[in-house]
TrEMBL record, chain A:
The gene is iorA. Heterodimer of the IorA and IorB subunits. Gene3D superfamilies: 3.40.50.970. This is Indolepyruvate oxidoreductase subunit IorA. It comes from Pseudodesulfovibrio methanolicus. The lineage of its organism: Bacteria, Pseudomonadati, Thermodesulfobacteriota, Desulfovibrionia, Desulfovibrionales. One of its GO terms (molecular function) is indolepyruvate ferredoxin oxidoreductase activity. Binds 2 [4Fe-4S] clusters. In this family the first cluster has a non-standard and varying [4Fe-4S] binding motif CX(2)CX(2)CX(4-5)CP. NCBIfam families: IOR_alpha. It catalyses: indole-3-pyruvate + 2 oxidized [2Fe-2S]-[ferredoxin] + CoA = (indol-3-yl)acetyl-CoA + 2 reduced [2Fe-2S]-[ferredoxin] + CO2 + H(+). Its cofactor is [4Fe-4S] cluster. Catalyzes the ferredoxin-dependent oxidative decarboxylation of arylpyruvates.
From TrEMBL, chain B:
This is Indolepyruvate oxidoreductase subunit beta. Pfam families: POR (PF01558). Keywords: Oxidoreductase. The keyword Iron does not apply. It comes from the Bacteria. InterPro entries: IorB_Oxidoreductase, Pyrv/ketoisovalerate_OxRed_cat, Pyrv_flavodox_OxRed_cen. Gene3D superfamilies: Pyruvate-ferredoxin oxidoreductase, PFOR, domain III.
Length: 611, 198
């Protein structure tokens, strides 16, 4: 049976994750091409597309990075295909170059960019607000607040994008991507075949002479879209009263619940902007004229707030506009926070708070899993280089090596930066640099870093942590993998040949669970200079279990002879190990049988799993 | 959908414990009763072993529960129950496991978890509506340690604070869980209800 997300079953209601709802919306619009680079909180969108792709009527790919993903989708929309490209907020930085020009060139088949922003940095290095990209490039923006809207806006956004030939931004935040709610399905017609490319250089080739009129067309398109925003059912005014609230995105849900909690729903007028760019100026102006105070409730940057201030100034309105002066510019909102801001504006007492205080509790930071091959690599690096090397890290599970006792992440900028920033640091300071990068990240943007390091004669030892998958975001395939959840990789790329092809002559490949060989290779490469590469190759055990359906036949146990020295716990910190009665012990349920600890202490032995 | 009283349920546990499966099941149960429901989940960088927090909200639009907003706190691990206490509103309901999953620092002997007594005392300052149960043992008795979570859901449904009882959860298990794990989870549900009443 095909997945319900693909069925033409209007009227059905399913409880969906926001990210699954986006997939359904795209299917209802007639999506033809989907590209992505995975990144939390966006990952379940492409993962769902991928999982159901054998039955779907669209082309799907995991591209090697966001820039490439957007370029592939850009080419597809020029061929008339309704296209979608998904990424997390920082991914848009990678894709920013083609994005800015795509807004000029346009999207004949329709093109929706999903940017999953992450207020609160739940799984990201920053909190950037990508609504600003939309203003920079000139893109319409839809901001859903529920699972139903995630579905409806994905569908309507794609159709709107095709209608105007305008690349559109579907901007979500973590709470929307990861909420679950009922979604009522609409029809899902067969999308048929894309029309194909129609040659028209003045429209599609941005040489300066053509770009200038393209920019004019872009501005005209935005004016036409402003009309759409004026009439959009996603922009609504409700309630009455002289106190006005303007909200967008998930903040709309917080406002609704806050007003309900406070019983203030009839005392305020609320303008919800689900279609927030271009600003529906007439609607907003009428709203601003109908109230005497406005509170703008939006997470992160004062984007709508500033738009409204400009509008008010333009029309000589003197009403009081509040926003970032009463609500924070960082992190997430919640209902009580919003309720208190509204109460304050209306001169009411804040919600009473509970005074319970808790003692400091032991933290539960994320840690590399039991049996993670990165632990083997990091343990060896610590032994060989200790604190003498500076460890340049990158984005992936392996960043977790920053915690003690491994402490193998000293700095980090972004995807692929370990090699290039590591090279820069070494050039500037002459310090020994060991740069760690994962296999997926290597294909994402490590390749260019290697080319740069070789060309500019950087002095850096690059350790490629090849766990045969993209583990952190949920085991998505990358060009190097052998197998995926839905089948074999027909074109596996070999990292060692790639590195050699880029001109690195000193390349070694080891299994990080073989500590002797790994340390020997590190010592050897450590004494050389120039660009050297060590490939630590061993699949992620979670991936092995899920995709290869294999588990290690053995588990570790600590023999009676354990002297309580605790080197294993103190230096390896495998989560399967614990202290018990002055001795070390292994939890056989958590142990993944990597046999690393056996090489650290002679009192640890192997036994058959389950015996 | 009928106009219902708002109920906010905050769930917390450790990655890999099945917190999210339980969350979705509870949300589906509420939906099957014709209730307005949203639910949310936050799991940071942890593949496994980190804290997982999730929510089920009945009659609300927001998927998020802020400090002091939860009517019900469901803690699948006792120390996480304690950590999440600030989310509970005064007088809310707590259903918590008594069986620890020690974090690494504790396993390594560097820090100590609060005792169950400490945790009970802390909870008592917020509410008197509290049920503690040994969810992993109950899960094992039912046939799979993860089903302990379903036992806790069963106890929650039987506690009388939700607009539906254990029968609704039973029907949702039958409708939504794969056939091969249904029996275990139905057994866990039964044991959970029993644990609440004993
Ligand atoms: S073999 Fe040792 S290091 Fe490997 S997972 Fe088991 S306990 Fe951890
Ligand atoms: S998911 Fe895989 S690669 Fe990531 S920490 Fe766990 S074992 Fe290591």
């Amino acid at each position: 049976m095909a997945n319900p997300l693909l069925g033409d079953t209007p009227g059905d209601t399913h409880l969906l994750l926001g990210n699954e709802a986006i997939v359904r919306g795209a299917v209802e619009a007639g999506i033809q091409v989907v590209t992505c680079y995975p990144g939390t909180p966006s990952s379940e969108v492409p993962d769902t597309f991928y999982r159901i792709s054998p039955d779907g009527k669209y082309y799907f790919e995991y591209s090697v990075n966001e820039k490439v993903a957007l370029e592939v989708a850009g080419g597809a929309t020029l061929a008339g295909a309704m296209s979608m490209c998904t990424m997390k907020h920082v991914g848009v930085n990678v894709a920013a170059d083609p994005l800015m020009t795509l807004c000029y060139v346009g999207a004949p088949g329709g093109l929706m960019l999903l940017s999953a922003d992450d207020p609160g940095c739940h799984s990201s290095q920053n909190e950037q607000d990508n609504r600003i990209y939309a203003r920079l490039g000139g893109m319409p923006v839809l901001e859903p607040a529920s699972a139903q809207e995630a579905k409806d806006m994905a569908r309507d956004g794609l159709l709107l994008s095709r209608k105007h030939g305008a690349p559109l931004l579907l901007r979500t935040t973590t709470r929307v991507n990861h909420l679950r709610g009922p979604v009522e399905f609409g029809p899902a017609p067969d999308p048929g075949k894309p029309e194909g490319f129609k040659r028209n250089p003045p429209h599609f080739v941005p040489i300066p002479a053509f770009s200038r009129p393209m920019h004019v067309r872009l501005m005209e398109r935005m004016e036409a879209l402003r009309e759409e925003a004026e009439n959009s059912p996603y922009n609504t005014v409700t309630g009455n009263g002289k106190y006005g609230i303007v909200c967008s995105g998930i903040s709309r849900a917080y406002v609704a619940d806050a007003l309900d909690n406070a019983g203030l729903a009839d005392k305020v007028t609320v303008l919800e902007l689900g279609f927030s760019n271009p600003l529906p100026e007439n609607k907003c102006l009428a709203f601003l004229q109908s109230v005497d105070t406005v509170l703008v409730v939006e997470e992160l940057e004062p984007v709508v707030e500033n738009d409204l201030r400009v509008l008010a100034q333009k029309h000589g309105l003197s009403l009081d506009i509040k926003g970032k002066d009463v609500l924070p510019r960082n992190g997430e909102f919640d209902v009580t926070m919003v309720e208190n801001a509204i109460r304050e504006g209306l001169g009411e007492a804040p919600v009473p708070t509970c005074e319970c205080s808790l003692p400091e509790l032991p933290g539960r930071p994320p840690n590399l899993c039991a049996g993670c091959p990165h632990r083997g690599t990091y343990y060896a690096a610590r032994k060989v280089f200790g604190d003498d090397a500076v460890y340049s890290s990158d984005i992936g599970c392996y960043t977790l090596g920053l915690l003690p006792p491994l402490q193998t992440a000293d700095f980090l900028l972004c995807m692929g930066s370990s090699i290039s920033a590591g090279g820069g640091l070494a050039k500037a300071s002459g310090q020994k640099v060991v740069a760690f990068i994962g296999d997926s990240t290597f294909f994402h943007s490590g390749l260019t870093g290697v080319a740069n390091a070789v060309f500019n004669a950087h002095d850096v030892l690059i350790v490629i942590l090849d766990n045969r998958t993209t583990a952190m975001t949920g085991h998505q395939p990358n060009p190097g993998v052998d197998k995926t959840v839905i089948g074999d990789n027909d074109h596996p790329l070999d990292i060692e040949s790639a590195v050699r092809g880029l001109g690195v002559t000193e390349v070694r490949t080891v299994n990080p669970f073989n500590q002797k060989k790994t340390m020997a290779a590190m010592e050897e490469l450590g004494t050389m200079s120039g660009v050297r590469v060590l490939i630590a190759k061993e699949p992620c055990p979670l991936y092995t279990r899920r995709v290869y359906k294999k588990v290690a036949p053995q588990v570790a146990y600590v023999a009676e002879s354990c002297t309580g020295r605790f080197d294993c716990l103190d230096k390896l910190a495998c989560p399967a190990m614990f202290k018990e009665g002055g001795k070390a012990a292994v939890n056989p349920i958590l142990c993944n049988g990597c046999m690393l600890c056996l090489q650290v202490c002679g009192h640890i032995k192997a036994k058959k799993r389950g015996s | 959908m009928p106009d219902t009283k708002k109920i906010r349920i905050f769930m917390t546990g450790v990655g890999g414990q099945g917190t999210l499966t339980a969350t979705t099941l509870l949300a589906k149960t509420a939906l099957s009763q014709g209730l307005t429901v949203t639910s949310g989940e936050i799991h940071g960088m942890a593949q496994r072993g980190g804290v997982v927090e999730s929510t089920v909200l009945i009659g609300c639009k927001s998927p998020k529960i802020g400090i002091g907003e939860a009517d019900i706190l469901l803690g699948f691990e006792p120390m996480e129950t304690m950590r999440a206490l600030p989310y509970l509103r005064q007088g809310g309901l707590v259903v918590s496991s008594t069986e620890y999953m020690p974090p690494l620092s504790v396993a390594m002997g560097k820090q100590e978890c609060p005792t169950i007594d400490d945790i009970k005392k802390a909870v008592a300052t917020c509410t008197s509506k509290v049920y503690f149960m040994a969810n992993q043992s109950i899960g094992l008795e039912a046939g799979a340690v993860q089903s302990g979570n379903i036992a806790m859901l069963g106890a929650l449904c039987a506690a009388g604070e939700l607009p539906f009882g254990p029968e609704a959860l039973e029907a949702a298990i039958k409708a939504n869980l794969p056939a091969k794990i249904q029996a275990v989870n139905l057994k866990a549900l039964e044991l959970g209800v029993k644990a609440l009443n004993s």
